[in-house]
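Hello forum,

I keep getting stuck at the same step: I have a sequence, I want structure tokens, and every attempt I make locally crashes halfway through. Rather than fight my setup again tonight, could one of you with a working pipeline run this one for me? It's a single chain of 1002 residues.
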Amino acid sequence: MELNRDCDSGVNENEYRSQQQLKSHSTDKKSDAVNYSNEKEILQRIEDLLTDIIKKKTELQLDTFFNHLNDEHESYYNYGLGLFYLKQNDKKRSLKHLLFSYDQFKATDKYVSAAIACSKSIEQNPKNAELHRRMAEMHHQYGAYKKSLDSYLEAIEIYKQQREWTKIKNLCNIAESIDSNNPLICEMYGYAYKNTAGKKPEAISYYEKAKQIYLNCGQKKDAERCNKIMNEIMSSSRVQELDISYFTSYKRDNINTVAISDGIPVDEWINSNHTSSNVLKLAESDDMLLDYDIYKVDRSICLTLERTNGSYRQSYSKLEDFFLNLFFEMLSLRQESFNDSNKSFNYDEYYTVKSEFLEFRQIINQALGQAYMNQDSSSIGTIYTTPALSLLKKLLKSIDPDLNEVQLEYIEQAKHIAVPGSALFYLELFTQLKRKDIILKLQRYTSDYGYNEISGLIDIPVLLLKPWDHQLEAFKAWKNNRSRGIVEMATATGKTVVGFMAIENLVNTNQKNRKIIVRIIASSTAILNQWRRELIEKMGLMADPKLDYTSSIICKGAHINFQTVQLVMKRPESYACDLLIVDEVHHFAAESFRNALKVPTPRKMGLSATIEGKTKLDYLAKYLGPIIYRFDLESAIKADILPKFEWKLNVVYLSVTEEEDFEQISKQILSLFNQVSKDYATIRKISKSEITITNLYHFVRLTEIARYKKIGLPDEWKALQAKLQERRWIIHRSQPKINKAIELASYYLELKKKIILFVMDINTCDLVASELEKKYSNVYVAHSRMKDANRSILYFKKAASGILIGAKMLDEGIDIPDAEVGINVSSTESKLQLVQRLGRVLRKKENKIPIFHHFIGLPSTGSYVNYEDNIKFMEELSNIQDIALHLGVETEMNYETDQLLDVHNSAETMVHETNFGDKVGTLYLGNILKQFKEKEVHQTILRRLGLFDPDKKISDEEWRQIVREAFGIKDELYLNVPGYWWVLVIGDRNAKKISKLLKSRC
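Reply #2:
Ran it on my machine without issues. Output:
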């Protein structure tokens, strides 16, 4: 069907783009701007050059091509790479780089170049609605309304074939704002509503509007067609209107049952669950309330509870009351520290928190859903800090800037229990926060500001850690020197955090919201990749952490770019910015690199561990400013920032209170998983692809997507989800068996040592103390129920020897006295919390190296769920190995039984033999391997591996030494290569297999 263009549809046929000055990259040093035709010429020149080179098929010519691209701006470089991979028939890489260039062209107002890059992408993927939507948005932004409308209609047509009714309505809404009298848009709107249950009136209204426009234009056939569709809609029955293949919750044989089922009486449902655990009841009622929220948007969903007088409101209001009462009953039981008058709720406060909780939950979940949907689909899962978790951390920071990173990490710990946004997630978060003032502020702040204000935090950079004193001093010194100068800090003392503070300050003081450019340059791509990852993680930025340094980060109008010195030094005037950060600045004193420091910018910061030689320093000071702050290795050791210690890992069985019930839950999970893994229809609906569920991580990932897309789940999926949450909750509330820790503490007390013992909760504190007090008098306990906890700590501080036993209280910034031995029996999912605990005890005393014992608890054989527990175990070991590498210490493994050693070996074998693709547990293998791509690092590792006997198993310590040597880091210095230990395990600890993995992926 074609619309008669003579009809006045509200579109100005000659309006192609608004007249505005476009900034562009300079290809001529005499000019700072390029007109539209020159933009096309640059792109055409790149394409012609590539075509000519491929014809000649010479590597030398190809090198020339890449050298030419290096001379161009990064956006042209990505465009050229996109064309190169397209010629190689590598569509995936081609699309990736073309979209990079599109984003960069668009960000720098190169309208024509962006349009061409997007057009090239569409040529490869003509059925990709998302690409057409991007093209439409770009045309719309630059005033090319006719082209924008055409692209929106292309995207809508594709979504129509995919039956994406909600997306059609969203795009129609935008298209209607461009041309409210376009009958095609009205028809598409009507078509989407026609296929949405309960929306017949809206569908008829839009078809009627389309009909009238066609009549006004004299297009009677099209008007008659619209009239016919309206008659069909009005004559169809409710059952005919519903499309059974698109039901999102339950599969039933009879359509009539689906359409009119009254469901279960709410009282019957509540009473039928009297034997279930509170965790299971909370998880199930939470899911039912989520279904009710979905039902308000999509009436085709089938709800569990019955209607009353034709409405679900009464049943679900009663369920809400049940849910709230259960939630706060569990919270009261969990919040043992509420017995403390400083933290407990009085009646009015308790009532306020309870009454405001549902509104708080609704606003936060809406914002979390938006954050989740905005992230790249390939990064969905539990890798790094997701945008949803970053949003909550920023919210807490907004409420109380003095919160430390351990308290913010409570959000990460809650994530290990349940999906962010679920009731169990909030229950764990509130429990960990403890402080009533924070919980009250969190809910009140959320309600006062509402969804728009809260969701706006997603785009704001916030430093999600509390800087050390020396970092604050360094930043202050830099600001006082007119935002110029060099910060010299010893390795591993956090010099990058000073750079983060500069970025945060610049962006958040940009009151006019003008465009800001931050540029970070370094001599190594590995350093730039690490900067990008840590910026996303530690400042809560919306970006895909799997992408490399060539992908800019955009937040609140700021464009954070990462460039190598090799690129910038060729034409520094093309890289003007508002803030320049130069890492490892001592390299830039080399004559070949000096030119890079001439980048035009009002703010310059150099970062380095050490700068040797007056000549080097004089040259660097000329362009960056003098050294304005020093923090050397000696200062770091005095400040206890760089400790050395012995680290002993003790693997024991987990202590679970109701072992039989726990074992039964584990078996039910395996049974339910077998059913769910064969439900291909639901898998396709959620993932939009033909993927299969081969393990529980795939299942959890899909349920996260379903929650934020508001897709209802079948009964079996809900049951498995609830059982998994129940099991994780039990494990989280359990701890390694305490008897071995008591034996260990007794051993050190006999040796007259000073010991700190960390346990899970207050009851365990008292239990351990009562056991040790039977034999020893110097036993001290500190927890929040004690009125004289500080006095107990003081007595321990003055004692020559003894043991201090504590739980969460010891995490919260309390001044803990020195100790020689640390014993951690509390389960710790957070790397940060573990390092903090290490820092409490790692004090050198009389030249003796302190010792830290870390207990790892595993479920017993009858309760072990292979994939779930193996990956959790491997992740915990990987976290520990990361810290060991970073701090330059060795680890020693000890097992309670030989059977536990077998479990460890079996878990490593599973990781090696399973084809994970790019994802292993919560880490992406591709991202880990990128750290080894630099030629020198890569070659050093391969050379060292070549020296090993092919049949020999490489130990943790041997692999650690190989990695340290490859990165050129001596034993006394510190190195951060997240996830490096996975490479050893995936490679089966075999030199040949690891080499093969690195050669194929690096």
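Residues 255-334 form one domain. If your local run keeps crashing, start a new thread with the error log.
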